[in-house]
């Protein structure tokens, strides 16, 4: 794999200073992170940068992006990302939405169907699962919630260490607060989105870990049935955070999907 | 002094082993362990105890509410205040208080409180609280907007109480086409508002800015003095000098006919401490966004077991030693309570007398002994210290009704 040079900068969207990491060449690919934020760099980001112009922003109020006190909904975040892409001169981008980021990606794809190249959803929140509920972090400790995103405890440790740092815990609390601010009730889903997905015009890939304890697989089937041209791929021995737990398998799924295979 | 009686209204009639087995006695601890027959008995005993407190000489009854937890079975303070408005004649009904952020419709709260004030013939003290973290989870209210909702609901209620309707309210968290309740408080300009609290600096400052008395809930003597420093500074910045009429204090104190009996019953205070601060997950009691961002780092360390509880968990003996809990016969508790007054100088004092599984009979005895033997000594001592309650001092209800404000230099 070619070494990847990342650039980090702040971009101003809706008066909010947002953090954006970018690397690679190729078609633009916007990666939208989980509700627990994202680590600064991940193997999957490097792998994707071999094929794409990868953009990894921090959601407003998460990580290094400023918190807009006025932000009230996940759809607001989707509008901000449309604004960001417009400012960057990107008229069409593929979207990868990870968990909570999947909800944002689906909002973007439904509100501007022609601006999306390909849509990839991974364990996406945003729809009410027909069976089971989205795991409620309000009732869980920071570490227990983040840990629930993995099938194998060692995969969690590989990402966050045996004992996540206090800085990391603080970050998770900041992320959690922002998730509460915009997705408290109903918790982590939209009641209107299922009715709007029919407008999506591009092929979608829905990826789910077979041991996703955060968003039940029933939601994966619902996404696949509501999106007009969608395929569901289930990754074996994997939890909610497919891109962290099985980065190679996930990268292969994404590249073959975008190559039209 | 204003001396009032308080109990958390414990729902202690459940198998305590079940709580220990489950590992928590709040929020998710199943209400299948709630026995409504025992609940009915206890509610009625509490009413009898409050009436006894009035008959024997207390000035006020302090009420509060909590949700989904055995340590307090009062799920709606307005219901008890309504009952007491009808069955008592003299005592102030001191609600400490209604958790404002939990209200989806603060106008309804304004109506209910106005009704309580009229039915009680002007005896309502309408305290307001943010509600504990678990209350937000138990009622589905967003903890991240807790303080915003608290302040907005307060402003709306005060406006509903003081401005003739109809008016429209277009706020951030509350929008009302028509605010025009046909129930307004008897007391003018509006019932006194007292604000209870434990640690939150923002609430202390806000109370001082409103000129509402702050009631320190059983904080240590040292912590209480710091609270007054913070309050006094904010008061001075708002243009007035805070005094005893701005200060209240809640003290755990149990009395009985003998020392041994008093100590035995006072151990029940530990029951509640186990329930409340011992057996619940920290992220339930402090959901993200509920606490001040300045506390974030300290909180995540505590919540992950990397630091001890900021409140600590001292032993019963230690708490007796520090007078966080006072227990004994009237003769032995009076000097200790006087020392609390000497040190903390409140004009409002709540005596939290009965908790856990203290029997009805012992609770009644405790109330009688406190009222007949302890309160007169406290009143005398309070008079000597010049601790005039807001009623005795005829203090303004809020900053907006103050006529003695100094001009504050513009910044």
From TrEMBL, chain A:
Cytoplasm as UniProt keyword: no
Domain AB hydrolase-1: start-end pairs: 45-247
UniProt keywords, alphabetically: Hydrolase
Domain of life: Bacteria
MF annotations from Gene Ontology: hydrolase activity
InterPro entries in alphabetical order: AB_hydrolase_1, AB_hydrolase_fold, AB_hydrolase_sf
Cellular component, GO, one term: membrane
Transcription regulation keyword on record: no
Protein name per Swiss-Prot or TrEMBL: Alpha/beta hydrolase
Organism this protein belongs to: Vineibacter terrae
From TrEMBL, chain B:
Residues annotated as domain Luciferase-like: 39-339
InterPro entries: Bact_Lucif_Oxidored, Luciferase-like_dom, Luciferase-like_sf
Pfam assignment, any one: Bac_luciferase
Protein name (database record): LLM class flavin-dependent oxidoreductase
Gene3D superfamilies assigned to the protein according to its UniProt record, in alphabetical order: Luciferase-like domain
Keyword set includes Cell membrane: no
Organism expressing this protein natively: Vineibacter terrae
Keyword Transferase appears in the UniProt entry: no
